[in-house]
Specification:
Elements: H1 2-19, E1 22-23, E2 25-30, H2 45-54, E3 59-61, E4 68-70, E5 73-78, E6 84-89, H3 103-113, H4 121-124, E7 134-137, E8 142-146, H5 154-157, E9 179-185, E10 189-194, E11 213-218, H6 222-230, E12 236-237, H7 242-249, E13 256-270, H8 280-286, H9 289-297, H10 301-308, E14 313-315, H11 339-348, E15 352-354, E16 357-359, E17 367-373, H12 377-391, E18 396-402, H13 404-414, E19 419-424, H14 435-438, H15 457-471, H16 475-492, E20 495-507, E21 511-512, E22 531-533
Parallel strand pairs: 2-11, 17-18, 17-19
Antiparallel strand pairs: 1-22, 3-4, 5-6, 6-8, 7-8, 9-10, 10-11, 12-20, 13-19, 13-20, 14-20, 15-16, 21-22
Helix pairs in contact: 9-11, 15-16
């Protein structure tokens, strides 16, 4: 009897020991080929993924708390005029190739970043005025960086700046992040290996990261990606659509994660370009605040979130998502679905219902087309639901789907459209990242881009406020300006914000230490703390 008990205990011990065996590799997919491995030149998602996993930064925005935390810098200080930031650096650190890390590497990186001949998208975020950026080094571990004019949110912008070695021969291979680029086969995979010189340690003093090798497999087909995840051949899907989420959750419920509303938005807008090939009466509709607000109030956002996105979206409030804890104006609420109130608002602007159709003052029936990109079933379904909702107040909507290049040409060059339905992907918390959208002179001021001067009083006010927040030194002043911008956008509805899609991801239950969030990267933001158990085969069992 005693022998049997000891055998059972021994068997249990063996089983538990098996569970605690960890894999040295992890695999996931990139949906496109990275355009570059130079961290200064990153402007696509695949290259950003590699930069995040390999690049050491001075400070990091914690993707969970949204607070700024020290990394290669132990502390920092921004001057009162917002032009200079001084960093104190960690000492005794080395790049992955063994080269020492000093302030000289920071100075060299900043010089490359701000070189106008380089055309760095990351560097553009720091461009605040004419003149050169000056660096001043004090010893090996202290550096001051001075810009020609104040830079809004200066310290947080360094979250995107991976420090490069000033002396290594293969600069893209010498990194300060948890992994370094070891192998690359175009069209197939990128292999990242554990950085043997990574500076972080766990509470027990063990050097991070735990996982030795990351395989980033280049796979644009999402059906194949989902199938491979289900088979356990890859361990994470960093961002997953609601349809795939539901498809996988039925058989793998423990592997699917909904972190709540993301920073991304879906919205529609009306063409307000004066030279657009539109009848004058339609342009008058689209430039009417009452018309835009009336249309907005007649759209059932709750239905769109439920039917189109399977409840994995939330009615949107405005240009800043509630997921952005720092900048969202908490006084604002989503536009309430109110078709009767919408009709009253339109009637006050001279529109009248006759025989079930809405007519303007001159007797023109209210009818317009919404263009969106073909093949995007979420937008196609959203447009159909808008068509249904607006039909209830006598507005006839035609849905037109176009291939993406043709759509972009129509809305950005020829302006040959009436209304459009698209989305905005937001990677950054700071509102200055949206300057090109909200300045009336901006290329992405979609409803009426590239204005020589603001064509409306409210656009002029937004211009003033956006420039004010960009040059303000104190966070409080910036916040007050951005709160007012959000209020004006809610009042004027140049973009009719529909929903914020939820941040959905899939993580194998063999992965331990993951904590999905709403900010990119949603899953692997803390990958250095992950382990992968080998015993539990598959992604959901």
């Amino acid at each position: 009897m005693i022998t049997k008990c000891r055998s059972a205990v021994l068997l249990l011990f063996v089983v538990l020991a098996t569970v605690m065996v960890y894999a040295s590799e992890l695999r996931f997919c990139l949906r496109s080929e990275p355009k570059t491995f130079n961290p200064i030149m990153v402007d696509d998602d695949a290259a950003e993924t590699v930069r995040y996993l390999t690049g050491g930064v001075l400070v990091r925005v914690n993707r969970q708390t949204q607070a700024l935390q020290p990394e290669l810098a132990t502390n920092w200080k921004v001057s009162r005029d917002g032009r200079t930031i001084t960093f104190s650096l960690r000492e005794g650190l080395y790049f992955s190739d063994g080269t020492p890390f000093t302030a000289e590497d920071v100075a060299s990186t900043v010089k490359q970043l701000m070189d106008p001949a380089v055309h760095s998208a990351t560097g553009d975020s720091f461009r605040s005025g004419q003149g050169n950026v000056v660096t001043a080094i004090s010893g090996k571990s202290r550096i001051a960086i001075t810009f020609p004019a104040p830079v809004a949110g200066l310290d947080r912008l360094f979250d995107q700046v991976a420090i490069m070695s000033a002396h290594s021969q293969k600069k893209e291979m010498a990194v300060l992040g948890p992994y370094y680029l070891s192998d690359y086969k175009p069209g197939n995979y990128i292999m990242l290996r554990r950085n043997p010189n990574y500076w972080k340690k766990d509470t027990a003093g063990r050097t991070l990261p735990y996982i030795d090798v990351l395989w980033l497999e280049i796979q644009p087909n999402r059906d194949i990606e989902a199938l491979r995840f289900k088979r356990g051949e890859i361990q994470i899907i960093n961002s997953i659509d609601s349809e795939y989420y539901e498809r996988l959750s039925s058989s793998m419920p423990g592997a699917l994660h909904d972190a709540g509303p993301s920073l991304d938005s879906e919205q529609m807008w009306f063409n307000q370009v004066a030279k657009a090939p539109l009848p004058e009466y339609k342009l008058a509709w689209f430039r009417s605040q009452a018309f835009r607000r009336g249309v907005s109030e007649a759209i059932n956002r709750e239905d769109i979130a439920r039917v189109v996105f399977g409840n994995h979206a939330r009615p949107a409030v405005g240009l800043i998502s509630p997921a952005n804890r720092l900048w969202f104006n908490t006084k604002l609420q989503p536009i309430r679905y109110d078709p009767s109130g919408a009709l009253k608002r339109l009637q006050q602007d001279g529109f009248q219902m006759q025989n079930g159709a809405l007519l303007d003052r001159a007797g023109h029936a209210v009818e317009f087309s919404i263009v969106t990109n073909s093949g995007n079933k979420y937008r196609e379904r959203t447009a159909t639901m808008i068509q249904r909702d607006l039909g209830k107040i006598g507005i006839k909507v035609n849905v037109v789907t176009l291939d993406f290049p043709s759509l972009i040409e129509r809305i950005t060059e020829r302006f040959n459209y009436e209304a459009a339905l698209l989305g905005l992907v937001n990677n950054e918390l700071d509102p200055s990242a949206q300057m090109n959208v909200w300045l009336s002179s901006g290329d992405n001021h979609q409803w009426n881009p590239r204005q020589k001067s603001p064509e409306s009083g409210w656009e002029a006010e937004i211009d003033r406020l956006m420039r004010a927040q960009a040059s303000a030194v104190t966070p409080g002043d910036r916040k007050r300006s951005m709160d007012r911008v959000q209020e004006i956008v809610a009042e004027q509805s140049p973009f009719i914000y529909l929903v914020n899609k939820n941040a959905l991801s899939a993580i194998s239950t063999t992965v331990q230490g993951a904590s999905p969030v709403v900010l990119r990267p949603q899953t692997y933001w803390n990958i250095e703390q992950w382990t992968v158990a080998t015993s539990a085969a598959g992604g959901g069992k």
